[in-house]
């Protein structure tokens, strides 16, 4: 009886911590883009987003034909986001010969444009997990504050990306000004003291066909 009691005491903190971990819930329902907005760059007089994002087989199919994005209508501050992505085959000007590119931007507070002030977790072939700071945003990485610029990059510290044809899971954790990027279960980038700490979340389409699925989020205390 005493051994059983001691075992329960030893397991109690672990069980409590597990119980307190928020469940990741779908913010993309797999049927349509309810709860999301779309925006695309203007080409001549064309501002249409038609056919740029389609929901197929429970996945978001981003054609890549324009620089564009879908964004949550809701704003978030402290959260754990998980997204799966896979590259398609097609690429378009002006990036038809460049690396396939996309991204997850968060803490988007500014008006819609390409690209709004935000923090980005890079999704680019070979560079998944790089940090991009857009619109003079900054962060502290390795104890040093980044310089405010239109676009500032901090390279990932590890490579866990799977090759084209495979689904990759990217997680973004943002809490009280800290951030952590996890690619296929491996922490590849992290920092603190973000200069912006709340806003919408967007998924980019940047000249390359890409698929997204299992877009889930847990709000953190």
From TrEMBL:
Pfam families found in the cross-reference section: 3keto-disac_hyd
Endpoints of the signal sequence: 1-19
UniProtKB keywords: Signal
Source taxon at top rank: Bacteria
Keyword Secreted found: no
UniProt domain 3-keto-alpha-glucoside-1,2-lyase/3-keto-2-hydroxy-glucal hydratase: residue ranges: 25-217
Protein name: DUF1080 domain-containing protein
High-level lineage: Bacteria, Pseudomonadati, Bacteroidota, Sphingobacteriia, Sphingobacteriales
């Amino acid at each position: 009886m005493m051994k059983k009691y001691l075992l329960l005491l030893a397991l109690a903190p672990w069980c409590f911590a597990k119980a307190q971990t928020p469940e990741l819930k779908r913010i993309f329902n797999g049927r349509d883009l309810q709860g999301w907005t779309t925006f695309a760059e203007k080409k001549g007089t064309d501002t249409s987003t038609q056919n740029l994002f389609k929901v197929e087989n429970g996945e978001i199919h981003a054609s890549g034909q324009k620089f564009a994005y879908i964004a949550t209508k809701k704003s978030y501050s402290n959260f754990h986001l998980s997204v799966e992505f896979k590259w398609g085959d097609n690429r378009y000007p002006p990036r038809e010969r460049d690396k396939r590119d996309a991204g997850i931007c968060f803490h988007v507070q500014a008006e819609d444009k390409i690209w709004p002030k935000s923090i980005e977790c890079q999704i680019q072939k070979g560079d998944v997990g790089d940090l991009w700071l857009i619109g003079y945003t900054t962060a502290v990485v390795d104890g040093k504050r980044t310089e405010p610029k239109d676009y500032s990059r901090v390279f990932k510290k590890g490579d866990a990306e799977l090759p084209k044809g495979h689904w990759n899971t990217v997680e973004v954790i943002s809490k009280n000004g800290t951030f952590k990027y996890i690619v296929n279960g491996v922490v590849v980038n992290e920092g603190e003291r973000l200069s912006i700490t709340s806003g919408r979340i967007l998924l980019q389409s940047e000249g390359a066909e890409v698929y997204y699925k299992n877009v889930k989020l847990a709000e953190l205390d």
